[in-house]
Every structure is written in C-alpha cells, then in structure tokens.
Amino acid sequence: MRAKVVYFALAAVLVVYFVLVGSRGVMLIRQGTAITVAFGVAVLVLPFIGAWFLYQTTKFARDANRLAKELEAEGGLPVDDLARTPGGRIDRDSADEVFARRRAETEAAPGDWRTWFRLAVAYHDARDTPRARKAMQRAIALHDGKPVRA
Predict the structure, then answer these.
(1) Going by C-beta distance under 8 Å and a sequence separation of 6 or more, which residues neighbour residue 61?
(2) Which positions ≥6 away from 99 have C-beta within 8 Å?
(3) Integer Cα distance of 107 and 102 in angstroms
(4) Which of 35, 49, 66, 97 shows its CA 20 to 30 Å from the CA of 75?
(5) Contact 119, 105 (CB under 8 A)
(6) What are the CA-CA distances from residue 144 to residues 60, 102, 112, 134 (Å)?
(7) Of 128, 90, 120, whose CA–CA distance to 102 is shortest?
C-alpha cells in the first residue's frame, strides 16, 4: 500500500510539473520571435513525452496487478520462501535457485502467461529489473492474446 501512495504522490507531482513546464512553453510561443517560438515548442514536447511515459508505466503496473489477482484466484502465485540476509534482502543463491526452476517451467510451456509471470517475479527477485519487465510484458501480451515480440 505504501508503494501505491508514493507512486500516486509522485505522479501528481509530475502532472503539476508538466502543467508548469507547458505554461512556460506557451509563454515562450506567445513572445512571437523565431527563437522563443522554437524554444517554446521544444519545451512543450517535454510534458508530452513525460505524460506518455507516465501513462505507459501506470498501464503496465495496472496490467501486472490484474494478472497477479487472477493468478492469486487460481492459487498459482509463487510463494515467497526465499532465504534472506539479516538485513532483509533476498539471498542471491536462493533467488538463483528459484530462477532456474522458473526458467525451466517457462521453457517447457512458452505459451503460458502464468509461467512468464512467475519468471518475471524470479527475475525481480534476482535483481534483474529489465528482464523482469520484459518477461512481465510478455505475460501480459500472452494473457491478452496480443502478438508477442520475439
């Protein structure tokens, strides 16, 4: 729950920032000189890129949570029985062991979104965020019947 509150607070701050930057871009365009119009247009592009990124990130999180709820209802969520360090971090050897099992599961059933979801969790536990995100994107695409990129 804490992560959701932080996420929405940061998203709200970003939206306020986008509005402020956008207003500065409009002010520059209203100046009417070639250089201020060029700068104003450039400044206006930034909030659009930021808003697109914020939308994509929110959509990804919402879709991943939707799959997690469905997998939980089926009783297929991976159990967190990983060994932890005294500081509470996941032990690397324990995460690697679980990852090897999840990878074998996924190789045996590459068309099942459930195995890709569990592999994404294993990647996350092994602190490989880029691969975790790609595996989760694949799970979402398989679940939704969308084309899957190789």
Answers:
(1) 7
(2) 119, 122, 123, 125, 126
(3) 9
(4) 97
(5) yes
(6) 13, 21, 11, 15
(7) 120
Express each pLDDT in 37-56 by its tens digit: 999 999 999 899 999 999 99
Which residues fall within 8 angstroms of residue 35, CB to CB, at 6 or more apart?
none
With H, G, I as helix, E, B as strand and everything else as coil, classify residue 90. Answer: strand
Nearest CA among 59, 57, 61 for reference residue 69: 61
Token reading at 145: 């019947």
Residue 13 buriedness (CB in 10 A; 0-12 / 13-18 / 19+): exposed
Q: Which CA distances in Å does 60 have to 27, 49, 117?
A: 34, 17, 13
Cβ atoms of 24 and 17 within 8 Å: the answer is no
- Can you read off the two tokens belonging to residue 66? 């939707």
Residue 150 scores a pLDDT above 70: no
DSSP character for 91? P
Cut 0.85: pTM above it: no
